[in-house]
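ingest -> validate -> predict -> emit
validate: passed (alphabet ok, no gaps, 134 aa)
predict: started
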Amino acid sequence: MTSKAISFVVLALAIAAFLAIRAFVPGNGDARIADVKVPELSPDAEAGRALFAENCVACHGESAAGTEAGPPLVHAVYAPQHHSDQAFQLAVARGVSAHHWSFGNMAPVEGLSQAEVSKIAAYVRELQRANGIL
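emit:
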């Protein structure tokens, strides 16, 4: 493949990613949230589901499908190859500056241990796998 063809493919992928992300940004005329299929969960993911409900659902929505206040985590943007489980740990511990979405910055989440965040990540990963992300 020539460098010109590779550049074209990279550009096409970047445009597709931009359009996929833009489809979920509030205020662009399409404030959709993801449709999420919830699978049977492992014990760790089930524990993560309860922790998610207590700490994350207000912004990230039921089944991590997103809300007007926060993005869906069942989205290719949060696939492990783009956001590792360590990124979840850092987001909870330090917060996150807005960079993929226009929801604003995410504040740190107080009171969660690393083990609890690992269970939340297990829940999100199982949701992602059930919905074709991974």
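The mean pLDDT is 84.
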